[in-house]
Design a protein that fits this description.
The chain has helices spanning 4-15, 20-27, 31-43, 69-72, 76-91, 99-108, 117-130, 163-175; strands at 47-53, 62-67, 135-138, 145-148, 179-187, 193-199. It is α+β, with helices and mostly antiparallel strands and 202 residues long.
Length: 202
């Protein structure tokens, strides 16, 4: 039988963010016990605060919790490796091209197949999830949308904002189709952050 702390982590893995009262109701644990376990998980570095959720009526804002950066995973090792390989290529005199595109191509791990766009989107989100993006795609009348529910480079994003362009390049490499970013670390109705890309078709 799973412990309360494991159940909290499982809930946050699925729902991304939650307030203590939601966890109390969902797990059928008293609010006091939930707060106790949340404090322990925070001390262990497994969860973190993610802002405040404003109440729909009267009352105080409630703290939002999410899995910590460490728990969600990051790709810093992979990025560093790709950057080092790119620097090595330049010193060896290889033909110059856009650095971010070359890095994205390496991270993508190979050329996309010549298949239907829906199949490429499915494979792309699989690869992105291997890289800790918590990605999904949605069909829309204008164009498909790809949503990243986690930024694996969040800890260095403020120092290297060009990583957002790297994300777009990576998605283009995986899909063999241009994309445009329409949301960067925006917040949804529940207070969770996400990035959104539109796939340019036709």
């Amino acid at each position: 039988m799973k412990s309360t702390r494991t159940l909290i982590l499982d809930f946050l893995e699925t729902h991304r963010v939650a307030v203590a009262s939601e966890l109390s109701r969902a797990l059928k644990v008293t609010p006091a016990d939930i707060r106790h376990h949340l404090n322990l998980l925070k001390q262990e570095g497994l969860i973190e605060f993610s802002g405040l959720r404003q109440p729909s009526g009267r009352g105080r804002p409630a703290r939002l919790y999410r899995l910590s950066q460490v728990k969600r995973g990051e790709n810093l090792g992979l990025l560093a490796s790709a950057l080092l390989e790119d620097a090595k290529d330049q010193t060896e005199g290889n033909q110059k091209s856009d650095t971010l595109q070359r890095i994205a191509r390496r991270i993508a791990g190979g050329a996309p197949s010549r298949s239907l766009l829906s199949q490429r989107l499915f494979r792309a989100t699989q690869r992105l999830n291997d890289l800790n993006y918590q990605a999904r795609w949605e069909a829309h009348t204008e164009a498909p949308r790809v949503i990243f529910e986690h930024c694996p480079y969040a800890s260095i994003l403020s120092q290297h904002p060009e990583i957002c362009r790297l994300d777009a390049q990576l998605l283009e490499e995986l899909l063999a189709t241009p994309v445009t970013q329409v949301a960067k670390l925006a917040r949804d109705a529940r207070g969770a952050t996400y990035c959104e890309f539109h796939v340019l078709v036709g």
